[in-house]
Each structure stands twice: as C-alpha cells, then as structure tokens.
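Narrative of activities, Objective 1.

The group set out to show that a structural description can be obtained from nothing but a protein's sequence at a throughput compatible with the screening campaign. Below is one input-output pair from the validation batch, recorded exactly as produced.
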Amino acid sequence: MNLSRGIDIIIPFHRNTDLVEPLFESLRDIREELCELACSIVVINDSPEDPEFLRVLADAIEALSASVPCHLIRNERNLGFVGSVNSAARRAVESRRDVLLLTPDTVVFPDALREIYKVACADPLVGFVSPRSNNGAIGAFPHQEEFRHLEPKESYAVFDRLCRYLPEFQFVPTAAGFCMFVKLEVLEEFGYFDEDYRLGDYQHHDLIMRANRC
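Output recorded for this entry:
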C-alpha cells in the first residue's frame, strides 16, 4: 500500500460525554494500525460552553496521544457538524493528507482502517470508502432491524460469521457518513461539505454526487 501521505481522522464532538470513552478505547486498541497508516486524530470540540465535557475529552486525547498524534480543535463558538468538519478538512488538504470522517457514536474494530485504505487504493477512481456497520444506513449488514440494537462486540461477532460470503468490496451509489474515507484529490477538486447542511444531514451525499458527476 502507498503510505506516502497519511490520514487525518476527523471526529467532531458536540457534548455526548458518554460517547467519548467507547470511541477512544476502540482507537487505543488499534494504535499500531493507526501508526502503520500514519494517522493523526483530529478532534473538534464544538461545545465551547461545556467545561466538564472539555475535561473528559482532553483526558481521552491525552491517553491516546502517547502513541498516536492527536490534535484538539476548540471552536470559540458552535459551528455545527458541517462547519466543524470543514475546518479540519481544510487543514488536512493544506497538509496534503487524506481524510477519514468518524462520528462520535462509532466504535472501530481491528483491521477496519487497513481494509478501508486497501479498497481506496484499489482504483484511482475510488474517491470514497465506507465500512460495514450494524447501523450504518446503506452500509448496514445484516439488514434486519434486530441487529442494530446489539452491543458492538455481539454485532461484530455476527458480521464476522457472515462476511466470508460477501465480496471484498462493492460499488454503491453513495457512502455512509458515520465512517467515511475521502481521498485528498476529491477535496482538492470538488471542495468541502456544503454548509447549507449545517446540522449534519445529507452533506456527504451532496459531496459524493458532485464528485460522481465527473
């Protein structure tokens, strides 16, 4: 795999203290993978009025930063999901790095990022990659409703039994925004998320459709 430029993993937070530890625990569990792919964790605190949440977030970042580069962006005012992500994506483009968007309710399992990057490198025309999830819209698998409410480890065990029957990857009309890899070239050519979608809904579909037209 070509590891020449690395990945900025952008995680926008607006409160949700209970989501901090599960996500960061999953990132600590894959720290070797993060280093292998030259990842940096870019966390955005979009809750400037909440000092207790900042303390919890800063503690989690400090624990991970011992092994993986981490950066905390503190918005002076609430920018919303899209504004927060765009501010970090612009920094990634300036540094000529790919982007992986993670929402705070995501739990990452080992080898997921390696697989995402492998698929992204499979063809120059692949601009976006999302993984499977128990509750990830177009990426959800298995599809039945009951699997969406299992604990993450239970859900992953079900997926692990079934994934051998799936192709290595599939081309789909759009990607799932909870965990979405975006190549640097896409951001350079087509720009960022449209900030008319400030609250964070459908903005990734809009960007994908803009790119797909080319």
